[in-house]
Specification:
single chain, mainly alpha
C-alpha cells in the first residue's frame, strides 16, 4: 500500500481544525453525532484509537475504545459543570501524535496502561466538547459519532486483506504527520 495518499491528505488538513466553524452543538442528536467528524484533530485521534485497538487485537479491541469513551464522557461532564482543565488543546494535539505513533508502530503496552492512556486522551477530547455543548441529545450523539470512528479504525485494522495491516500502520504515520501539521498552523 502506497502511503503517499495518506501523507498528502494529512498535509491538506484545514488550519481551522480546532474551531469547528459553523457547528452549533446544542441542536440535538444529529449535530452531536456529526461534531467529531468536523475537526481533523478529533477525527484523527478517534480513528487512531480504533486502529491501534484493531492492530493489537484481543481484549484491546474493546478495552481501548471503551476507555476512550469513558474518559470522554467524564471530560464532557467536567466541561458541562464548568470545571477548568488546563492544557486541553495541547493535550488534544498530543493525542493525535501519540495515538498515531502507537497505531503506526502497533505498539503493545500493558493493557492497564493502554486503557489509562486512551481514557486520558478521551477526557481531554470530552472536556473540549463538553465546554462547547449542552448536556443531552448532542452529547449522546457525540458519543455515538466517536464510537463510529473507533469502529472505522477497528474495521481497517482487523481486515484480513493482506494490505490492511500495512495501510493501518501507514494511516498511523499519516496521523502523526497530521498532528505535527496541526501543531504548526
Amino acid at each position: 500500500m502506497n502511503p503517499i495518499p495518506f501523507l498528502a491528505a494529512a498535509l491538506l488538513l484545514p488550519a481551522t481544525a480546532f474551531a469547528h466553524p459553523g457547528t452549533a452543538l446544542d441542536h440535538g442528536l444529529a449535530a452531536g453525532f456529526l461534531h467529531p467528524l468536523s475537526g481533523a484533530d478529533h477525527l484523527l485521534a478517534m480513528v487512531m484509537v480504533g486502529l491501534w485497538a484493531g492492530l493489537l487485537g484481543g481484549r484491546a479491541r474493546w478495552a481501548l475504545p471503551g476507555g476512550f469513551l469513558a474518559g470522554m464522557a467524564g471530560g464532557a461532564l467536567m466541561g458541562f459543570a464548568g470545571v477548568a482543565l488546563p492544557g486541553v488543546e495541547a493535550g488534544i494535539l498530543a493525542s493525535v501524535i501519540v495515538l498515531g505513533a502507537l497505531a503506526g508502530l502497533a505498539l503493545r503496552l500493558p493493557m492497564a496502561l493502554g486503557m489509562v492512556l486512551a481514557a486520558g486522551f478521551g477526557l481531554l477530547h470530552g472536556h473540549a466538547h463538553g465546554t462547547e455543548m449542552l448536556a443531552g441529545p448532542a452529547f449522546l450523539g457525540m458519543l455515538a459519532g466517536t464510537a463510529l470512528l473507533h469502529g472505522a479504525g477497528l474495521a481497517l485494522a482487523s481486515s484480513v486483506a493482506p494490505w490492511a495491516r500495512r495501510a493501518a500502520q501507514a494511516a498511523g504515520g499519516a496521523a502523526v504527520l497530521g498532528g505535527v501539521v496541526l501543531a504548526l498552523v
